[in-house]
Design brief:
The protein has helices at about 5, 35, 45-60, 75-85, 120-135, 155-165, 180-190, 215-220, 245-250, 255-265, 280-285, 295-305, 310-315; strands spanning about 15-20, 65, 90-95, 100, 115, 140-145, 170-175, 190, 195, 200-205, 225-230, 270-275. It is an alpha/beta fold and about 325 residues long.
Length: about 325
Amino acid sequence: MPFARLAAATTPTCHIGFGLAAVGRPGYLNLGRDRDLPQDRSVEALRARTHELLDAAYAQGVRYVDAARSYGRSEEFLAGWLAARPDADDVVVGSKWGYTYTADWSADAETHEVKDHGLATYERQRRETDGLLGDRLDLYQIHSVTPDSPALTDKQLHAKLAEAATRGRTVGFSTSGPAQAETIRAALAVTVDGEPLFRTVQSTYNVLETSAGPALAEAREAGLTVIVKEGMANGRLADPAPDALKAVAKEAGVGCDAVALAVILRRPWAGVVLSGAATVAQLASNLHAAAVDLDDDQLDRLAGLSEDPQAYWERRSRLPWH
């Protein structure tokens, strides 16, 4: 598996990845984007910002980069950076299919992305991804699987994904919504010719939304690499942060973001924790998580922030696209 390359890395930040959701398109639902991104959100401006962040991430030891077909031009931006940085041949590259970007580079679009987990969408988006990332793509994930997704039951799709796996591409899935644990367990049961299909899972987990934790531990026990997304709860843990998080961050002498990500890094099942930074300063602060040491009392106080998953995801669904 490509993530075995991370196991051999020696940098303290090698298990922090960089996700391109916030910088690959002009509109996204993270809080604080009005101040984080330049007023000029042209393709070239965000390409430059993405490359600046990738340079900074690589220089500081980050070795996993996460994109998606629906993240605007994230794959294009990443492909351009990889072409310009032949020295970055140790980067593990992941992307996702299953959502089509429909906003036409507008932050005010009525619909930003359309979900479809059908075989035809997979084959179209795989060709699009291959055209940009080619052999640099290590991991291809189904984007935001939920319990009712046909991707869990479509045998033809499973056969195509298994075929891709025989050619060296790792097959994974990501989850969203209040039933993430149910989705993870259903996906663990998917096999092709008696062999498990999925080798990675990417799920939302943070101090506000912890419901997927036991299922992610089961996935790790089954041999999957676990990738954690939305560790900052789309900005809710920074803009402004809950009082308990601010108190622990003050005690630790770091930012709230570093503490929030450090909690996840302490989970024994967490293989890679994504930073969704939109500025170099945010990225540097996120990476301090690798050095944060939290005691049991601090962890207990932070555990008290956990919300009911239905309430968490309902609130997330109301976040405006900026």
